[in-house]
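Budget justification aside, the reviewers requested a transparent look at the raw inputs and outputs of the sequence design task funded under Objective 1. We therefore reproduce one unedited record. The lines immediately below are the structure tokens for a 312-residue chain.
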């Protein structure tokens, strides 16, 4: 028995969150303004697919399910196994998912899958989720029930959870993802809201990175070129009992004050101050960094972002 099946971890992207077995990991992402696709694999095969599409107005759920199953059938047309479908399987319920409109299904070919389709009126989108397995996998229905019932499909209280490879952070939902780096040694997300920016990152192997330097010295070396135009001043401190650094800087070249004033006149934010935090979590042997360029009305975001990052 694989004990990892009973240990869960969080994956979150663009408003979608899900709890999955420990040995499943984010494998493929495709997100646009009106639709998205997320695939999660184990070591051997795809295990979970989630698709979401903006669908304001009426949605014919039965037609949506039939259309999706036809697409799946076409993708298995070269199988040696016949394609069989079962509807209204007890995967999840409307009550569990807190949805007024929901349908379930199962299919079997060279693989098998259990899935659900629902309409979320709160965020005006249709979500399709299916958990895949081998044809002889006896407990796949139980796994599908546990995984699909954990899915959420929109932000909570104005904050969106972003989580991958054990890194979990929360960002205000009106910030847009501008870029990401997903490597074993470095996870980094960049966000923008008008002219404001947020960067959140996690470095691994902290004991090696900090072998002959303090956290502040490492920070100056790692981000010095990127932040030098703001001339940040740093203070060594503590956060959650960890060695930490708080830093702040401003960029005010000629005419910048006039530009900020003009932007405020037309109702746009005009960020001028760089604020950030870094800390070394010994328990996980990782370094966490969060910083951004903020408008004066939003300086408190720097501390809020730090407090919403999980480290251990």
């Amino acid at each position: 028995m694989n004990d990892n099946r009973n240990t869960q971890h969080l994956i979150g992207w663009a408003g979608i969150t899900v709890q999955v077995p420990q040995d499943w990991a984010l494998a493929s992402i495709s997100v646009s303004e009106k639709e998205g696709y997320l695939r999660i694999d184990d070591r051997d095969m795809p295990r979970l697919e989630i698709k979401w599409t903006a669908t304001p107005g009426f949605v014919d759920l039965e037609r949506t399910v039939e259309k999706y199953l036809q697409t799946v059938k076409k993708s298995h047309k070269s199988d040696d196994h016949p394609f069989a479908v079962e509807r209204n399987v007890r995967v999840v319920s409307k009550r569990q998912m807190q949805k007024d409109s929901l349908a379930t299904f199962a299919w079997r070919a060279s693989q098998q899958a259990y899935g659900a389709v629902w309409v979320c009126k709160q965020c005006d989108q249709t979500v399709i989720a299916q958990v895949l397995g081998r044809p002889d996998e006896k407990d796949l229905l139980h796994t599908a029930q546990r995984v699909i019932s954990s899915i959420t499909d929109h932000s909570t209280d104005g904050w969106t959870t972003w989580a991958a490879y054990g890194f979990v952070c929360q960002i205000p939902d009106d910030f847009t993802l501008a870029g990401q780096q997903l490597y074993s040694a470095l996870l980094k997300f960049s966000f923008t809201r008008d002219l404001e920016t947020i960067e959140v990152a996690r470095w691994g192997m902290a004991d090696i990175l900090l072998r002959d330097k303090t956290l502040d010295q490492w920070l100056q070396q790692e981000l010095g070129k990127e932040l030098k135009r703001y001339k940040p001043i740093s203070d060594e401190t503590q956060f959650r009992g960890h060695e930490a650094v708080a830093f702040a800087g401003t960029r005010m070249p000629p005419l910048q004050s006039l530009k900020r004033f003009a932007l405020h006149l037309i109702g746009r934010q005009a960020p001028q101050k760089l604020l950030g935090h870094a800390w070394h979590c010994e328990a996980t042997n990782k370094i966490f960094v969060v910083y951004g360029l903020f408008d004066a009305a939003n300086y408190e975001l720097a501390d809020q972002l730090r407090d919403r990052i999980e480290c251990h």
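The chain has two domains: 3-149, 173-307. The domain at 3-149 is CATH 3.40.1000.10 (Protein Transport Mog1p; Chain A). Computational costs for records of this kind are itemized in the attached budget.
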